[in-house]
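Task: complex structure prediction.
Instruction: return structure tokens for all chains below.
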Amino acid sequence: MPADQLRRTRIQDLLKSTDLNREVLVKAWVRTRRGNKYVQFIALNDGSCLATLQVVAAAEGFPEESLKEITTGSCIAVRGQLVASQGKGQAVEIQATEITVLGTADETYPLQKKGNDQKGISLEHLREIAHLRPRTNTFGAVLRIRHALAFAIHQYFNDHGFYYVHTPIITGSDAEGAGQMFRVTTLPPEHPPRTADGAVDYAEDFFGKQTNLTVSGQLEGELAAMALGSVYTFGPTFRAENSNTARHLAEFWMIEPEVAFNDLTDNMDLAEDFLQSLVRYALAHCAEDLQFLNDTYDKELLERLNFVTTNEFQRLTYTEAVEILKSAKKKFEFPVDWGTDLQSEHERYLVEKHFKKPVILTNYPKEIKAFYMKLDDDGRTVRAMDVLFPGIGEIIGGSQREEDLVKLQTRMAEMHVPEDELWWYLDTRRFGTAPHAGFGLGFERLVLFVTGMTNIRDVIPFPRFPKNAEF
RNA sequence: GCUUCCUUAGCUCAGCCGGUUAGAGCAUCUGACUGUUAAUCAGAGGGUCCCUGGUUCGAGCCCAGGAGGGAGCGCCA
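Output:
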């Protein structure tokens, strides 16, 4: 092939290639350069995998002076022979014949290599340079795993007969009951049009009414399930809560399957198989990245992931959980009483101390759960389920839905949910209602669990949280 | 929103009881070195000690207020 038609090969493909002694072209970012006046070694990373490719530049072709611009962080194109490496750290390397600097990076590049004192840039500092952190090993690994999990989610549902439905991001309802919402408006903030009594006149707004960013696609997902049978949503979700924790974001991605004719047990079966399949997919497809995270941050990560894929989740009712907590020897900061919601410390005790495995809690008191959950026969509890994971807490929240129109209307009245805003939702119970169930999985919480990262702001490229919308 | 801790070189951190010119490792720069593996060796440059005010003969250190960040809690996914 003529030299100028040579196409670039990804480093991932070169590193596993057995077709040696051929000319290749690589385009990538420089991690380090070292050597002497006779030979120089350049470690290259193009993001296709964690590992770097070693480029050898011999002095005959590349006097040391000519490599001055090849600094940590610069981007170069290398043409050369792919050969077996003489060194011990790698199987193959490139003997360079031509190096072109595509982009320089001077000494102010923030991601200079860390030294042999093993101390690198902290995750906290990397959050302040989130535009560059994908170039680190850690964020490369996290972002590749995030991608793999997103892909596995679509594959799982496709393989199981689910249809992907796109629910709206702008919603005209603020009655979904999942938290504070962000307003969406085109009205001028300084001088909005007013009605005769002085209130802001939203009839003048873009949609002719107040609108918000969605807090959940569930209600629309239910509409689709009542036609397509098994559906799921996977999209961005927004909560304007002033939550300052390592497990909350103002903008996050949520997966919400909804299945006609499923009851609570079917729902639990789906959640458990779904989660196990996703973890299994990551173990099979992200081995190198997971090994790196295991070695770097959390020595028990792989062990924990394998454990989850091979052990059944512990299922018990809220009432049973309260009994266990009441008889526990541990002293809790918050008392446990039937009817109050469990605190983080209680959930952590059940998952990490008592059962030492993922837990699915069901049949919560109706007072502490949403209006749309199906009432149990005793009239006190609802068919809710929360999946609790070690280190994460609630990773899934779901329920069998109330399919009976009258019971649903009664619950809405009790919880002051206005019927007129959800007339379309109630129509599903008026026309051909059916038992159905579903749940919401926080995507970033899943990525948090699989990567072993401890702060949710480190598993999404550009996190949105109170007082921060940089980048 | 609440509790608590932190903020010193580009990064990661020391800094004694409040006392002379604020230190280390890494990074960067310069030089040496014939295949390195987060190369090695030698040298050099690099500081608004987060900001404002106060106490004191004297403040990186003590006090007050503010800003930013971490961890935990609440809300939840």
